[in-house]
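Sequence in, structure out. First:
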Amino acid sequence: VKVTNRFAVVLQAQYLRIIPITWNHHISMRAAAIVACHATIQPVVQVPCTGITLGDRFVQIGNFRLADLHGNHFSIASSSQTKTVVIYRQDGTTHPGPRDDWQAFGRSDTTNGISFGDRFIQIFNWRFSDVD
């Protein structure tokens, strides 16, 4: 699967909002800095993204795998450390790491449960979007 950037303008993000698709008494969840970076992404057209892999309900960016787990949990884990950084539950609770469980490194690299739309990426029941 080839992933490309299609930004019409310079993109800067102050935070990432994680929004479960199903309603469970919470509108959204705001995480502290998952990746602290002050880089600005310049407009590009059809430029392949390197270091990004899609698979069975996961997106891997560099060493970090963002994955849906069982529909009710979402984890961010490091492949270089084989540690889970954080787990988010559909009920809005956050379970910080480092820890050795709740990872999706054994999954198939056949793309499943990943979709893209206008300023969002969806991994199974979890949607990451630009809301500003």
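Second:
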Amino acid sequence: TIVGVTTGVLSGTRRDKPADVVMRLYGTIIFVIPIFWLGQIFQLVFAVSLGWFPVGLRFSGLPLPNHVTGLYTIDSLLEGRIDKFLVAIDHLILPSLTLGLVLSGFFTKTVRANLLRTMKADYIEAARARGIAEGRIVSRYALKNALVPVVTVLGLQFAILFAGAVLTEKTFAWDGMGLLLLKSIDSADYPMVQGIIVVYALIIVGISVAIDVVNGLIDPRVRF
């Protein structure tokens, strides 16, 4: 989201300039790339060819942290093992980049379109007429209103994120809920499939409620 908003702002504030062309091209390409293909490319380049990161799995090279939460980063810190924490982070980087970059393409295109529309509003022209610096206009007035529609669709993007997480876990051989869902479907374990889908649904509903609250904070028109 941070990458997508940043690139969208850069594109929207530099319309038809080289930076805008580059950001639009980035947003279009990233938006249409299949997430499993991007994950495989990352593994091939950064793990196999360059050796910067491990190939798949959630943890390797050291004994697993003592199980407390099931999250290796947190369990490593609770155990006081910084070396295990760094190993867990090392395994997180490529899957996180895969999921984050795919979503950033959508936010780049959405933020750019909303920012361009907002910059044509009467109150923006009035701010320019008063001599307010363009950077201040964008950061203080235009960006806040341009992000309202983005926050609204953020809940839908979380649903896409969960769907992408299933493929990402499969690509990186992560033993998570997504991989468990695929295994349960293959083995016709329908109670497990239903349970996982219910958990996903509850998470998405909770996120949607949180987004409604945030919308009320940034847009007084929807407060009640």
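Remark: The CA atoms of residues 159 and 204 lie 7 Å apart.
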